[in-house]
Write a structure and sequence with these properties.
The chain is mostly beta strands. It has 1 helix and 5 strands, in the order ββββαβ.
């Protein structure tokens, strides 16, 4: 699972970039995770950003919850699953 979205980095627009959860940490009250921003599936990460959410212990796995959380944030409103 990953997201596809156009993003900017250092003044360069990356059209249809590939955003992938790259790491997790935390516990049942707070999960932190990083997103790797890539030009495409095979490319190295251009940048990383860190996010947090309160997990639903009865819900989907934490990876799926991380992507669901991202899509609730304004900066990822146009992101699509890929």
């Amino acid at each position: 699972m990953a997201l596809k979205q156009t993003f900017e980095h250092c003044g360069i627009t990356v059209k249809d970039g590939y955003l992938k959860v790259s790491e997790f940490s935390g516990d049942k009250t707070d999960v932190g995770f990083s997103i790797a921003f890539k030009a495409n599936l095979e490319a190295n990460a251009i940048k990383y950003e860190r996010f947090n959410f309160v997990p639903n212990l009865d819900g989907q796995n934490f990876i799926a919850q991380a992507y669901t959380h991202l899509k609730t944030l304004p900066e990822f409103a146009g992101a699509t699953d890929c």
